[in-house]
Design goal:
Number of strands of chain B: 4
Number of helices of chain A: 20
Order of helices and strands of chain B: HHHHHHHHEHEEHHHHEHHH
CATH superfamily of the largest domain in chain A: P-loop containing nucleotide triphosphate hydrolases
Largest sheet of chain A: 6 strands, mixed
Shape of chain A: globular
CATH topology of the largest domain in chain A: Rossmann fold
Radius of gyration of chain A: 25 Å
Number of domains of chain B: 1
Distance between the termini of chain B: 32 Å
Strand order of the largest sheet of chain A: 6-7-8-3-9-10
Radius of gyration of chain B: 20 Å
Helix content of chain A: 25-40%
Number of domains of chain A: 3
Strand content of chain A: 15-25%
Oligomer: heterodimer
CATH class of chain B: Mainly Alpha
CATH architecture of the largest domain in chain A: 3-Layer(aba) Sandwich
Number of strands of chain A: 21
Chain lengths: 512, 331
């Protein structure tokens, strides 16, 4: 069978830095093809060379048996390659119809837009994906999953033969993910190929046919998904032996720890609004307490309440220094709390500032001295954390946006570790970072706890919770419903507790 | 200061072609071209009197541009600067020609400086509070004083031109130190001070962090609202000072004209100097450079007999060029 896309020996450098040295990719017609690899492996560069964002330095690209060089994203689009980026390129204030037909509006005889035809065509395209919505409503009124599907519908209506999806599920909840998978299967059934980039390996086994694994700018393996395992993929991405990983566990969070110490955080019937109604929990020194639950169960809202980002309307919070609910993050920081936010780009880094300035931002009140900032101490602290956390950079004064995702995350972790907090709240600390950096970050967290720190962990990865947490507080619909610990804390039990309705008898799960 | 700071590391991306160098140093290139042109063409350009005239006129633009740069660094804009100049400029003569000042000359003079600046500061705090606490769009928030500030100034003066003869007050506009007008030195002092604060203090870091990514800054404990209010307050205060200087130079106060279109000059100077309207950068010396370029364009055209209206078009051209350089410089 002739490949739809065939890329051979692709090379690309940026100002002397090699991003791709030998990338190969074959996509067959009507297959869902996954592209995985650590951050910096070259996935996005490969995609950008294919879609005409970058010009390749060497190698060959064939589309449908013809040599193909995209001169720009528009050219790639007209050649049938549609890209759906993480940040959607849609206009939230305009109607669904306008977003779908944009650039290809049906015209009537007077040359004006034929709205009836446009609405009809939009309804027809969306119905193919089982979406029945008011197409005249503005797009922003719908949840992000629908918006994502509209983006895909738009791509399909442009007669795409290849749809590239970059981390499409990262902002969707479980039900929305199911809908998306339906759509991907529909695309495949109608002969359209999908290139699927994702950090969530479990997803690949559900919808992908084959997977290409990249490492350090090269394609290192191509596997049929049926002939490999999650462990096998991780091993491919890391260049490790599967048996070795299996023996040491999937995460670096496990291992022995001393007994938990004094209480550093307690929440009693805390509520901030509709999405956080009633949560109670306690975190002690030297332990990791995880919040288990689905998206929207109130985990992030709990973190926001503790950190002073949402006003507490009911209940009591006691922070490490004994103070009550904070009014602002600066209060919480002073009380010994740090929050590593989930959305690194929007709530973590200041992209234009240097690594050094980013790292010491929360510490600044303590670096003040008459006439300015104690830059000597600042540099010592930064150099110390760069070394201790193995942050890869050219210079602490380079802008943080130039670092890879994993290294940015380490800088943000250092931002909080430097404040010597009693309690660290970690919201998806390893999301969107590559496997190698993930294990390093987990090691950092474990060291922090071993030194007497306390961690409140939010993670969608069950391995991370089961291996790492001493206790799990299970949340549902804004309420803490039960707690699990010790031998009762298994992946199956956790999934059961999260997935099912509120437990009628929480005491039973408390004492396994 | 360590060696590292003096010689920032050259990364591969930073290698500049001649064209890219020109783009990055657009303001400086423009200055060189303007100076060269004037030396060759404009009669009597290279003499002390020309320098004094230019310094005395650039000072007001430069002061306001420094403040504007701080506001732009937070991702905002301040349209009220010209109106605040008018307000403080109109107040001063009213105070030092009042019966109270006649009776207590020293106290009256002090009040003529202090009260207008206090009022300017209050305007700035009001602007900042609207933006930072109530979340009003900066353009809308500062539009309030843009419109009402000049109105109040005209009501205070009954719309009349106030002329006066008060050597003590006029000092700030007409005195010379080492042959350079006093307000030129004042600009240098203010710029150095603001630059130091931006570059070396926690408040400066906070300003750039709040402008660079407001949400992230807030979550790192940065007092975003306080920093923004501080930026707007400083901008207004400096505008107030500029208003006093204009009145002092002219020995007259015309509420309808003081600081007219100053907001545009200041924004242009800041942008020519390298400020980015989305925030996160505060090139203070760049603002001074930008102000000098704007002033030189005005002067060049005026000295060569080109009508004032044409110089407006030339200024617009410079803004377009500066923005173009910024946009291409990014890619």
């Amino acid at each position: 069978m002739q490949s739809l896309v065939s890329i051979q020996g692709l090379q690309k450098s940026f100002a002397g830095v090699v991003a791709l040295s030998d990338a190969t990719l074959e996509i067959r017609p009507g297959e869902v093809h996954a592209l995985i690899g650590q951050n910096g492996a070259g996935k996005s560069t490969l995609i950008k060379c294919l879609t005409g964002v970058h010009r390749r330095d060497g190698g060959e690209v064939w589309l449908d048996g013809q040599e193909f060089t995209a001169t720009g994203p528009r050219h790639a689009q007209s050649a049938g390659i549609a890209t759906i980026y993480q940040e959607l390129n849609l206009v939230p204030l305009r109607s669904v119809t306008e977003n779908v037909v944009m650039g290809a509006e049906p015209r009537n005889r007077l040359g004006l837009i034929d709205w009836r035809a446009a609405h009809a065509r939009t309804r027809e395209v969306l119905s193919r994906f089982g979406i029945e919505i008011d197409v005249k409503e503005r797009l922003g009124a719908y949840p992000s999953a629908i918006q994502q599907l509209v983006a895909i519908a738009r791509a399909v209506s442009m007669e795409a033969r290849l749809v590239i999806m970059d981390e499409p599920t990262s902002s969707l909840d479980d039900r929305e993910i199911e809908t998306l998978f339906e759509v991907v299967r529909n695309l495949r059934d109608s002969g359209i190929s999908v290139l699927y980039v994702s950090h969530f390996l479990a997803e690949l086994f559900r919808i992908c046919d084959r997977v290409t694994i990249m490492w350090d700018g090269r394609t290192v393996a191509v596997r049929d998904i049926g002939a490999t395992t999650k462990l096998g993929l991780v091993a491919d991405m890391l260049g490790r032996d599967p048996a070795e990983i299996s023996a040491s566990g999937m995460t670096e969070l496990g291992g022995d720890r001393g007994a938990a110490g004094e209480e550093v955080l307690s929440l009693q019937d805390v509520g901030t609004g509709r999405s956080l109604r009633d949560v109670s929990l306690v975190v002690r020194r030297g332990e990791i307490v995880a919040l288990g639950g689905l998206l929207g169960s109130g985990r992030t809202e709990t973190a926001r309440a503790i950190f002073g980002l949402d006003a507490v309307r009911q209940g009591q919070i006691r922070l490490p220094d004994g103070s009550g609910a904070p009014n602002a993050p600066s209060d919480a920081i002073r009380a010994g709390v740090g929050l590593l936010a989930e959305d690194r780009k929007a709530e973590g880094i200041i992209p234009g500032m240097s690594v050094r300035e980013n790292m010491t931002l929360a510490l600044l009140p303590k670096l003040r001295r008459p006439g300015g900032i104690d830059t000597r101490r600042e540099r010592e602290i930064v150099d110390g954390y760069v070394k201790a956390l193995g942050i890869k950079l050219a210079d602490p004064d380079q802008p943080i946006r130039e670092l890879s995702g994993g290294n940015q995350q380490k800088v943000l972790l250092a931002r909080w570790l430097a404040t010597k907090p009693d309690l660290l709240i970690l919201d998806e600390p390893t999301r969107g970072v590559d496997v190698g950096a993930k294990r390093e970050i987990q090691t950092i967290i474990r060291d922090f706890v071993a030194d007497g720190g306390a961690v409140l962990l939010i993670s969608s990865e069950f391995e991370e919770i089961v291996e790492g947490a001493d206790r799990v507080v299970v949340m549902q619909e804004g309420c803490s419903v039960s707690e699990m610990s010790g031998d009762g804390l298994t992946e199956d039990a956790l999934i059961a507790a999260i997935a099912h309705g509120p437990d009628p008898d929480p005491e039973r799960k408390d004492a396994p | 200061m360590s060696e590292q700071e003096l010689f920032p590391p050259v990364r591969p991306m930073a290698r500049l072609s001649p064209g890219a160098w020109l783009r990055r140093h657009g303001g400086l290139s423009a200055l060189v071209v303007l100076l060269a042109f004037n030396v060759l063409v404009t009669p009597n350009f290279l003499n002390a009197q020309t320098l004094a005239v230019n310094v005395s006129q650039v000072a007001t633009i430069a002061l306001v541009a420094v403040g504007m740069t701080l506001v732009i660094a937070t991702g905002g804009i301040d349209l009220s600067v010209g109106a605040v100049m008018a307000l403080s400029g109109a107040m001063a003569p009213i105070i030092f020609t009042s019966a109270f000042a006649e009776a207590n000359p020293a106290l009256g003079l002090a009040a003529a400086f202090v009260l207008p600046l206090v009022v300017a500061l209050v305007c700035g705090v009001f602007n900042g509070a609207l933006v930072a606490i109530l979340g009003v769009q900066p353009i809308i928030a500062t539009l309030i004083f843009f419109i009402s500030g000049r109105g109040v100034a005209q009501v205070l003066t009954n719309g009349n031109l106030q002329t006066f003869n008060h050597p003590g007050f006029s000092m700030i506009g007409t005195a010379r130190i080492l042959g350079i007008p006093a307000q030129g030195w004042l600009v240098l002092l203010v710029a150095a001070l603001v630059w130091y604060v931006v570059r070396f203090t926690a408040s400066g870091r906070y300003l750039l962090a709040a402008g660079g990514n407001e949400r992230a800054a807030r979550m790192a404990g940065v007092p975003v609202a306080r920093v923004k209010i501080l930026a707007y307050a400083t901008c207004s205060l400096l505008s107030g000072v500029a208003g006093l200087i204009v009145v002092a130079i002219n020995s007259a106060s015309d509420a309808a004209r003081i600081g007219n279109l100053m907001e545009l000059d200041a924004i242009a100077a800041a942008v020519v100097g390298g400020a980015v309207l989305s925030g996160g950068r505060a090139p203070i010396w760049g603002a001074i450079l930008g102000a000098v370029v704007i002033q030189l364009v005005k002067y060049t055209l005026l000295a060569n007999g080109v009508a004032d209206e044409v110089s407006l078009i030339a200024k617009a051209g410079i803004i377009v060029l500066a923005v173009y350089a910024q946009q291409t410089g990014k890619g």
